[in-house]
């Protein structure tokens, strides 16, 4: 029988991000009903009930929520948001922590967000233009301008799983290659965003907003997109991340984080004006500290992966209470506290990831000091198997980043099977490299 007082929460998604969210919800007293694309062994163990179905299959997720009388829904990934899951859940009477399809444009359309920041004169905007097949030839001149001023970035205007963005100096060697890539993008997408290439250090500010002027800004985190140590190799969904006990990062000042918060709050206000209805859910801002100040790279309409694994374990306040306050539009009144600890997350991924991942059985250590979050793995009769994506996230928490790193590293290095992880994430050497890079960038701006 259902315990009196337990709030039933639908959780959509099956990655390590959702495993961390499920943990936090349950610690806060929720009963979790998980709708997953893959059967996540970690979520399976702690959920009250689960169902497996396609991420974009909104109807099945809504049916599952209704059958189980879910009161609140937390949507993990972008695919169901883009498919309008929040609109359908709301129609069915389920309140959601996540934006409607129209508002999810914040993530699904890079041109929407760039135009919004420009139109409302919000700080953090950068030089950009949007091209379609109709005016693609005009892109040549703009590319030339940007390349002679320091480089350019090409972004498909739509969801690409973080893989469609290409930069000069990394993936594109010259103006001709930039233009050729723009044409390729326009074969698959209605438009392409071309923007100036920035130089600096990136950070993620994840914010929850209730659409009623309430904002909960989580501690900032830095992700590591490149597959291999020393930031080499192809871009990935993120190989690991860290946060610091003072809720800054070693290369950031308090005023930098304040600036990012101001930008996010201004963007939320602009969305309300632009779309005629407020945004409710997560606004995950990808920012860069540059010589010209804090600049916006993109927004996601969901929590970050791996960044969620850094922030959920830090919560002292119940995440269920936070979700309730969000849907009841009283987030501004809720006092939210975090542990003043540093965190380091390391993802163990299949050999060959991201280009040619191998699948195979792995043995995952549990019971140590590290938190363990399962991602894209499959539980079979003989144990846990990797799939094509990130497998398991390990999180260390301690007073200092270096100590948190040791905890995560110890656990990650014990996984048996054909996998690898980045040993350098959270180490003193890599932190010093970031600080040095930031110093050089700022000096160049003087
Ligand atoms: P996005 O999907 O927009 O976050 O882009 C993916 C990655 O490309 C970011 O995490 C950055 O590393 C890089 N990137 C995106 N936009 C820019 C830019 N304007 N200048 C430099 N790097 C960028
Ligand atoms: N950490 C990158 C993302 O969640 O999109």
Please bin the fraction of helical residues. 25-40%
DSSP summary: helix tally: 14
Task: Detail the poorly predicted runs.
Answer: none
Bound molecules: adenosine monophosphate, glycine
Number of domains: 3
User: Can you tell me the CATH superfamily of the largest domain?
Assistant: ATP-grasp fold, B domain
CATH class descriptor name of the largest domain:
Alpha Beta
Radius of gyration from CA coordinates = 21 Å
Shape: globular
Average residue-wise pLDDT: 95
- CATH architecture title of the largest domain: 2-Layer Sandwich
Tell me what the structure shows.
- The chain has 446 residues and is an alpha+beta fold.
- The chain folds into 3 domains: 8-98, Rossmann fold (3-Layer(aba) Sandwich); 127-196, Dna Ligase, domain 1, CATH 3.30.1490.20; 200-432, D-amino Acid Aminotransferase, Chain A, domain 1 (2-Layer Sandwich).
- Helices cover 32% and strands 26% of the residues.
- The chain contains 14 helices and 24 strands.
- Strands 12, 15, 18, 20, 23 and 24 form a 6-stranded antiparallel beta sheet that branches.
- The longest helix has 22 residues, at 254-275.
- The mean pLDDT is 95.
- Bound molecules: adenosine monophosphate (AMP) and glycine.
- Glycine binds at residues 162, 223, 238, 300, 304-305, 307.
